[in-house]
Design brief:
The complex is a heterodimer of chains A (248) and B (526).
Chain A (H helix, E strand, L loop, with lengths): L2 E6 L3 H14 L3 E7 L2 H11 L3 E5 L1 E2 L2 E2 L1 H5 L7 E6 L3 H9 L4 E3 L4 H17 L5 H8 L7 E5 L4 E5 L3 E7 L2 E6 L4 E4 L3 H8 L5 E4 L2 E3 L4 E5 L5 E4 L4 E3 L5 H8 L3
Parallel strand pairs in A: 1-2, 1-3, 3-6, 6-7
Antiparallel strand pairs in A: 4-5, 8-9, 10-11, 10-14, 11-12, 13-14, 15-16, 16-17
Chain B lengths: L1 H9 L18 E2 L8 E7 L4 E6 L8 E7 L3 E9 L7 E7 L4 E6 L6 E2 L8 E5 L4 E2 L4 E8 L2 E11 L7 E8 L4 E3 L5 E3 L6 E7 L7 E7 L5 E5 L3 E2 L8 E7 L7 E9 L6 H5 L3 E8 L6 H13 L2 H35 L6 H16 L3 H20 L3 E3 H19 L2 E6 L8 E3 L4 H12 L7 E9 L2 E8 L9 H21 L4 E7 L4 E7 L4
Parallel strand pairs in B: 4-12, 15-22, 24-26
Antiparallel strand pairs in B: 1-2, 2-5, 3-4, 5-9, 5-10, 6-7, 6-11, 8-9, 11-12, 13-14, 13-16, 16-20, 17-18, 17-21, 19-20, 21-22, 23-25, 26-27, 27-29, 28-29
Classes of the chains: A alpha/beta (248), B alpha+beta (526).
């Protein structure tokens, strides 16, 4: 199976670089075109219907999200590429979509392409792209995409009670009592959820202050959640947690 | 004129049988007037349209009128004027949501007639002949004076849901300095801070939105305004801002910033649908003020001799604290100056690495080596962390930097030192780099090979001027990312002036149609 893809970047040198890397390391990919403007990209995509898009997030003054929003055809996979883009990449992470950082690491590139290959082969297209476009407009998206074994769940951030580290996995405990196991480390979600006010109380715990009922003095510090669940607060985190919970 | 408009409103009347999808010209809404402006605007809608709100009261935008409708199909505009007006210089334009001109005509070419609806003496009117579709979109009508385009009235008609405004960043203004706040979740305020600039991504109708600040603990509204200002062009994508005086923020704590449209006829429940709520933590560190000292003095003079004696010691102690506080502040300023000396934009850093990767994969070994060499020199310079270095070093470094960016964007450049005698004089290290970066990014990136940048080092007596010139489209200081680079440079300059105890360094911008000049002036430097 050949994956038909196009490369979208406003710098020709970057297109050539990615083309060289893909030719050498990802033989299953057929590069249909390298395109430097969003308008040309839109026309090309709608006419040629590629399977995969490599998208540079920054296109001059705009972001490539503007292109995606204006497409009538979206039945493709995407891999975002960026040098360094705090806001853009944040939106992509919330949607749990794949991205590569420049300069491109060959192993990461291969893995991302293999993932796309698998998705196309098993026809498990997900709605993450639509989710990104609906969700990305603000700096603090209201929902977050959690990739699980079989499916992707889109969870309102405010419904997350706490997260618990489980080796390289993270357990999400939700308001309704649901429990989701996600195959990414807690650190990743700490970075994403801290701007929403979540507090890292412990190496293994990230807590939504909305559900914190009180601070118990036992064992040097434990947070009691409204459900009765107790969350440990480790010594090095104690001051920071206190500050976060009592801002005055 | 006002009286007349009231008359018009009362005159909203239904007669005849309106046809669906056709403009009902018997029902006219007042939609634009301005004191001293010879023309006013009315508009007619089709019968399926329902007006949610229409208003012309926006403090910073006299002459702007907004009509928000739902289920509308078409609109027709009417211009109304006094009988014998001087309207030769006026032009009227209708634009669509993307700014495309749908209609443009000098007003004097329109066949004004005695007003048909009522025989208001002294007034004539005319319908703009075209009707315009407003299905799920918005339109803007502008009538302006050609000799002075700022003399204008604007009518916006919207027939779609509004957007949410997006908060971009905060910029804090003190007396001589301004600084950007990292992130939008918390703000540290100091005694000398005057205003908090709240920057939002402007949507087309940003002026209909109100900024409200609530203190969470008390639930009290401490600030509510709609006086937005724009630094340059407004329009989708460009920020507008509002300055909030720090006197509105009584104390540290949790606050909520709410951006929400407020229009007559719009229910607050409805308005909340378009609201953006941002929780922000504001910290105001405790500081000693001269007021504190005054209080002490008052207490002492009023007290008995014992209290006086005690007070004397108290004052002495407090004075010492104030003094050491000042020393501390100065120290902190120095440390901050050292810490923020050089910031290589991470964007530049990783793009440079990416370019090197591209050269390797394109088998262009010579270029790759050359580029890598420059990159290493630049990085080393940044890591060396010198406070000052010679103009010669600065020039060499700018050469490296410009050549690296030249490879990516293909502009041409020139660096000129008009008097070689100053090459060994020292200046703050890498102070010019963010300014040159800015000139590249917003001046010449989009012009390709036609782009041009020059950097001139010009001694004038004991003063030194560094001029950075680009031939780009002119620059927008309000852009977030560039704002940060320039913001940090400004902060660095302010700190240097503070440490020198006077104004020794100035930064200024001058932007024209085809050229932007950034100038750094060093007073008594050479």
């Amino acid at each position: 199976m050949m994956i038909n893809c196009i490369l979208i970047d406003d710098e020709q040198a970057n297109i050539e670089n990615l083309r060289a890397l893909l030719t050498r390391h990802c033989p299953q990919v057929n590069i249909m075109a390298g395109i430097r403007t969003m308008e040309e990209a839109r026309v090309f995509i709608e006419r040629n219907r590629p399977d995969l898009l490599f998208l540079d997030i920054h296109m001059g003054d705009r972001t490539v999200f503007d292109l995606l929003k204006n497409l009538s055809y979206t039945d493709f996979e995407v891999i975002f590429v960026t040098a360094y883009n705090h806001y853009g990449i944040q939106a992509v992470k919330y949607a749990a979509l794949d991205y590569l950082l420049k300069p491109i690491d060959i192993r990461e590139l291969k893995e991302a392409v293999e993932k796309v290959e698998k998705k196309i082969a098993t026809r498990t297209r997900t709605s993450q792209l639509e989710f990104l476009l609906e969700n990305n407009t603000g700096l603090f998206p209201k929902k977050i995409a959690l990739p699980m074994q079989q499916e992707i769940r889109y969870i309102p951030v405010r419904d997350i009670m706490y997260c618990e580290a489980d080796n390289t996995y993270t357990s999400f405990y939700l308001q309704e009592g649901d429990h989701l196991l996600v195959s990414k480390p807690l650190k990743e979600y700490t970075d994403l959820l801290k701007p929403h006010g979540f507090v890292r109380t412990h190496q293994s715990y990230l807590v939504n202050p909305r559900f914190v009922k009180s601070w118990l003095k036992e064992d040097g510090g434990v947070l009691l959640l409204s459900t009765g669940k107790k969350i440990p607060v480790s010594r090095p985190n104690r001051e920071a947690v206190r500050r976060e919970l009592n801002p005055l | 004129m006002k009286k007349f408009i009231n008359f018009l409103l009362i005159g909203v009347m239904a007669a005849g049988q309106p046809v669906w999808g056709q403009v009902n010209t018997r029902k006219i809404y007042s939609a634009g007037l301005r004191t001293g402006f010879p023309l006013s605007v009315g508009l007619c809608l089709d019968s399926s349209a329902r007006v949610i709100s229409h208003t012309g009261r926006f403090p910073n935008l006299p002459g702007t009128h907004l009509v928000w409708v739902e289920k509308g199909q078409v609109v027709q505009f009417e211009l109304i004027s006094r009988d014998t007006p001087d309207i030769r210089q006026y032009t009227c334009v209708v634009k669509d949501e993307k700014g495309k001109v749908l209609y443009k005509e000098p007003v004097s070419k329109l066949p004004f007639n005695r007003n048909r609806l009522f025989s208001a003496p002294g007034f004539v009117s005319v319908f703009i002949p075209d009707t315009f579709s407003i299905r799920d979109t918005s339109l803007r009508l502008v009538v302006y004076n050609e000799t002075d385009p700022s003399e204008q009235i604007t009518t916006d008609i919207i027939n779609r849901p509004l957007e949410r405004l997006q908060l971009l960043y905060f910029s804090i203004q003190a007396k001589n300095t301004s600084r950007f706040v990292e992130g939008i979740r918390s703000i540290d305020l100091y005694k000398e801070d005057k205003t908090i600039g709240v920057y939002v991504q402007a949507c087309r109708f940003y002026y209909a939105y109100v900024l409200t600040i609530k203190e969470k603990r008390s639930g009290k509204t401490v600030f509510k305004e709609r006086s937005w200002t724009s630094d340059g062009q407004t329009g989708p994508g460009n920020p507008v801002h509002m300055n909030v005086g720090t006197n509105h923020i009584p104390r540290s704590g949790e606050y909520e910033l709410i951006l929400q449209p407020e229009l007559p006829g719009l229910l607050s429940r409805e308005a909340e649908k378009y609201a953006t709520v941002i929780p922000v933590k504001i910290n105001i560190p405790r500081q000693y003020s001269s007021g504190d000292l005054g209080m002490w003095a008052l207490l002492i003079t009023g007290g008995c001799s014992l209290a006086g004696l005690l007070g004397f010691y108290a004052i002495r102690k407090r004075n010492r604290q104030v003094l050491s506080q000042r020393n501390l502040e100065k120290k902190i300023a120095e440390v901050r100056l050292n810490g923020m000396r050089i910031q290589l934009n991470p964007h530049f850093l990783f793009n440079a690495l990416s370019t090197i990767q591209g050269l390797i994969n394109g088998d262009d070994k010579d270029k790759a080596n050359d580029y890598l060499g420059k990159f290493a020199r630049l990085t080393r310079k940044v890591l060396e962390n010198e406070v000052e270095h010679t103009i010669e070093s600065e020039v060499r470094l700018l050469e490296d930097y410009l050549q690296m960016e030249q490879l990516r964007f293909g502009f041409s450049y020139r660096i000129n030192v008009s008097d070689e005698g100053i090459l060994q004089k020292e200046i703050p290290a890498l102070l010019t780099q963010p300014l040159v970066e800015n000139a590249i990014k917003h001046g010449v990136v989009s012009s390709g090979n036609a782009g041009y940048i020059s950097v001139d080092f010009i001694p004038e007596g004991s003063d030194l001027t560094i001029k950075i010139r680009d031939n780009g489209k002119g620059f927008r200081i309000d852009n977030v990312q560039e704002g940060m680079g320039i913001g940090l440079t400004r902060e660095r300059i302010a700190l240097m002036n503070e440490n020198a105890g006077g104004e020794i360094l100035f930064l200024s911008f001058q932007s024209g149609h085809d050229e932007t000049i950034t100038a750094l002036n060093f007073k008594n430097w050479l």
